[in-house]
Design goal:
The structure holds two protein chains of two kinds. By secondary structure, chain A is mainly alpha-helical. In chain A, 50% of the residues lie in helices and 4% in strands. In chain A, helix 8 packs across helix 10. Chain A is globular. The model of chain A has no long low-confidence stretch (mean pLDDT 95). The relative contact order of chain B is 0.17. The model of chain B has no long low-confidence stretch (mean pLDDT 95). The chains are: A mainly alpha, B mainly alpha. The interface between A and B is large, with 80 and 69 residues.
Chain lengths: 507, 239
């Protein structure tokens, strides 16, 4: 089913804050999940009669489990600092895409049922009854948020709309309103092991084919091992790396890095997915279930290190949550985690990002690169939102900005950053993150990419940039689809390890 | 006497309400590490980050210079004014309160100017107008009312400050004394009591809230330390 037609926003000289247009995006609704997808995840197949009790019950449950939700719903003073920070507001002018207004969709219900002021004076404090229409609004606008956390950087209390969006989606799931895209993918990763639903034998075939391609191309027998017990490194990468362009070029890059460094490594057929769409709902148990595959694979294969490929939200889950969810990391004293933590090599961070690994190898001279191999390119780098604002690389804060840039600068000679205020912690989301990377949300995706496309246009004009380097599978898929609408060639998009792949010297 | 009762009730609501909220925030777990990065990796680093946030409004400064200017003027003005007011509750007056006294008098101008700026933004900026509720305007008017009535007494029509101090010292020692019956003073005190009453029930909870905000008060060290909430740890036992 094709999404309805819409106007592509015009790129201006600078990112402009639009006048608000109420209801501008109220027609956009992601396809809802069908009954089997819902029920497989343990959610109701459709809206039941007692939906209101269920919704409020779930909300109370989440308020008791997540301090973030409780504090964030109380603390907002409507100062307006976030109102011009969301790429979806900048691209659509719909006031409900201002972070505070998106939060307010839930906050007014919270006030009505969970606060004294809202129970006594609902009109005064903007408290509202929970109605069927409220649920529709939630479904509309909590699926127009990519959970990128840009608003949380600028909020004086650090209110993170992502936490509220996640809670909103979780409540919707629990009353029987799920999103087709996210919930079907969660089903696939739980049933089969990856988001693409790619079974083990197909994966094996693909990897063999890639090995042949690399050997034909370079004359070097670079391997892509699968399920090898006793390998040093287990590589967990988004399944898009196995099949999609330009993702696969980065997978080839990782393989070449391991080959050149002489490090034994393996992929896993059961943990063949770095992505964890459990993050996109507030569902801790779901996220944990998806992450447990990786712990199980690490124990089964007996690996010493766990390395994560280029994927933004996956790196957030891996870096920030794996230790909590599954004990992949250090510093545990509980029996659940100690077994795995003893197995891991304490000379390396666990988990480690592929950019951290490659950067260390380049810096220490264990792999050699020739940046002139990329002399046809003028490169810029897009900080992926989850990497930038919800994780780290290296030992010092901000390493998540510097390490990918160090890798890029080692393998290319021409690099230019986009404008300040659009990179590093202030980076704009690609527009397709957080469970929005689906064709039925194309209008949101295209319009949400406007701020990034504007910054890119400027660096292209000024420095003739012809390559946008990325470290996220969702960014890669989103930009190849959406940047052409703004007049860019989709081949200008690719991974950081696609650049490494071209520059690395193999023996 | 009405005002004595009013202030006992208001103080009780403020103290018990805030204590309950703080207890409620601290007992609610934060099951995941969610600091907005780049974030400090150590506890002292977190204290430094929080300090900059609370004293300088660092994130707001990054965000919007106008809101920052008005917000900071108001809060710093309010802080100095409150510090100055300690002279009505202490005997002998602490030495640093005497030092603050002249600054505190003029800080009221900062405070009201900041509030006026914030009020103007509420109806001048379309985005802020859209998100404003009636209580947002009323709360600013309440604070402006407190500021202006206080300034009237500081700069225009003085009240009997000795008798006022006797009234509040009396309240503190449960020995109620008469309150001077100046209309401006009565308005000022009624508005203050109202503010104390709504504080723990309203968005004014941003004051304790900021200290409990997980995106600001967590250290960025999830790879080095396993962080597990009690309800989440129970899941591990099933494996």
């Amino acid at each position: 089913m094709a999404a309805p037609e819409f106007d592509i926003p015009e790129i201006k000289d600078d990112i402009e804050v639009p006048k608000l247009r109420e209801g501008a995006m109220s027609h956009v609704k992601s396809f809802p999940a069908a009954r089997p997808a819902q029920e497989f995840l343990g959610y109701p197949g459709e809206l039941a009669d007692d939906w209101k009790e269920r919704a409020l019950g779930k909300m109370g449950d989440l308020l008791g489990k997540y301090r973030s939700l409780k504090v964030f719903l109380d603390a907002c003073v409507h100062c307006g600092a976030c109102t011009d920070k969301c790429h979806y507001y900048l691209g659509t002018s719909d006031p409900n895409n201002m972070p505070v207004a998106r939060q307010e969709l839930m906050r007014k219900v919270y006030r009505r049922y969970f606060t004294t002021a809202g129970k006594l004076f609902p009109g005064l404090v903007g408290a509202k009854e929970l109605t069927r229409e409220t649920l529709d609004e939630w479904y509309n606008y909590y699926y127009q948020c990519s959970e990128c956390r840009r608003c949380s950087v600028f909020c004086p209390y650090g209110i993170d709309t992502a936490e509220i969006t996640m809670a909103g989606r979780e409540i919707l799931d629990h009353v029987g309103i799920g999103q087709k895209y996210t919930n079907e993918i969660l089903g696939k990763v739980i049933k089969i092991g990856n988001n693409l639903g790619l079974p083990g034998p197909a994966l094996e075939d693909t990897l063999l084919g890639l090995e042949e391609d690399i050997e034909a191309d370079t004359g070097v027998p670079v391997k892509m091992p699968l399920d090898v017990k006793g390998a040093e490194v287990l590589l967990i990468t988004p399944s898009a790396d196995f099949f999609s362009e330009p993702h696969v070029e980065s997978l080839i890059g990782y393989a070449k890095v391991f080959h050149a460094a002489g490090t034994s490594w393996t992929l896993s057929s059961v943990a063949s997915e770095a992505g964890n769409f459990g993050l996109f709902q507030a569902n801790y148990e779901m996220m944990r279930k998806v992450a447990m595959r990786i712990r199980d694979a690490a124990l089964e294969l007996g690996v010493k290190r766990i390395v994560v490929g280029e994927c933004g939200h996956a790196w957030r889950v891996a870096y920030s949550f794996w230790n909590t969810l599954t004990g992949i990391g250090y510093g545990a004293d509980d029996p659940f985690s100690i077994e795995l933590q003893k197995q891991l090599d304490h000379n390396y961070p666990q988990p480690q990002h592929i950019c951290e690994l490659t950067n260390d190898l380049i810096k220490s001279g264990r792999i050699k690169v020739d940046p002139s191999a990329n002399d046809d390119l003028v490169v810029t780098f897009h900080d992926s939102c989850n990497v930038a604002r919800a994780s780290r690389m290296g030992d010092t804060p901000g390493g998540q900005f510097d390490i990918p840039r160090e890798v890029i600068k080692a393998v290319v000679n021409n690099f230019h950053d986009m404008a300040d205020g659009t990179i590093r912690e202030a980076t704009f989301c690609c527009g397709g993150g957080g469970g929005l990377l689906t064709d039925d949300l194309m209008e949101v995706r295209v319009k949400g990419a406007l701020p990034r496309a504007t910054a890119l246009t400027n660096v292209v004009k000024e420095h003739q940039v012809n390559f946008l380097a990325l470290i996220c599978a969702i960014c890669k898929a989103q930009f190849t689809k959406v940047l052409p609408k703004y007049g860019f060639d989709m081949s200008m998009v690719g991974g950081v390890h696609q650049l490494v792949s071209k520059a690395i010297k193999l023996d | 006497m009405v005002y004595a009762g009013l202030f006992y009730v208001a103080t009780l609501v403020l103290v018990v309400g805030l204590a309950y909220k703080i207890f409620d925030y601290s007992r609610t777990p934060a099951p995941l590490k969610i600091p907005t990065t780049p974030a400090p990796t150590t506890k002292p680093g977190v204290v430094y980050r929080m300090g900059k946030e609370v004293v300088l409004f660092e994130s707001l400064f990054k965000s919007n210079k106008w809101i920052w200017l008005f917000g900071w003027l108001f809060h710093m003005g309010l802080f100095l004014v409150l510090a100055r007011h300690l002279r009505y509750f202490t005997e002998p007056v602490w030495f640093w309160v005497d030092i603050v006294q002249p600054f505190g008098k003029y800080a009221s101008i900062m405070m009201v100017a900041g509030l006026a700026g914030l009020f103007a933004r509420r109806f001048l900026v379309d985005r802020v107008r859209y998100i404003s509720t009636p209580s947002d305007y009323l709360m600013l008017l309440l604070l402006i009312g407190i500021g202006l009535s206080g300034m009237m007494m500081t700069f225009v029509v003085h009240t009997d400050i000795v008798a006022l101090k006797a009234f509040f010292m009396g309240l503190m020692y449960f020995d109620v004394q008469p309150l001077p019956q100046d209309p401006i003073l009565l308005v000022h005190l009624a508005l203050v009591a109202l503010l104390m009453l709504i504080f723990p029930l309203s968005k004014l909870l941003h004051a304790p809230g900021v200290f409990f905000s997980p995106t600001r008060n967590q250290a960025d060290n999830p790879r080095e330390h396993r962080h597990v909430a009690a309800w989440a740890a129970r899941l591990d036992q099933n494996n």
